[in-house]
Amino acid sequence: MTARTPRFIAAVLLGGCAFASFAQDVIRPEQASRHVGQSGMVCGKVEKTRYAENSEGQPTFLHMGGAFPRHTFSARIPQDQRGKFRPTPEELEGRDVCVVGTIERDASRAEIAVRSPGDVKLATIK
Fold it and tell me: What separation in angstroms does the CA of 5 have from each of 31, 39, 82?
């Protein structure tokens, strides 16, 4: 296990099927920008959830890796997927999650565009 890989203890399934990517290294939110363009699993605490209902596409953001607005990573949930989340995106605030997908750059931060609730899992990270 490398210094950038937190020990992954367990995942509680949100979407009903297990991650196919458990074999991947866990990327911390602070290090996600080093992996832009790669598929990965970013795990950390959701510091703040924001529903941007007045923005184009009405996305919901899960901000990780520091307090908003100085966070280092966001998971962007499109409006058409928002209602499918159980627990809701707002209920994820303050909880540890893992997000799977292609890491992109959004302004000065890394971001994963979530395609479905199965891309986000509750986790216990130590």
Answer: 10, 16, 29
What does pTM read for this prediction?
0.82
The rounded distance, in Å, linking the Cα atoms of 4 and 100 is 17
Closest alpha carbon to 97 in 19, 38, 36: 19
80-113 pLDDT tens trace: 999 999 999 999 999 999 999 999 998 789 999 9
With H, G, I as helix, E, B as strand and everything else as coil, classify residue 59: coil
Checking phi first, is residue 109 left (phi over 0); if not, alpha (psi -120 to 50) or beta? beta
Q: How far is CA 103 from the centre of its chain?
A: 10
Residue in 29, 1, 35, 2 with CA at minimum distance from that of residue 123: 29
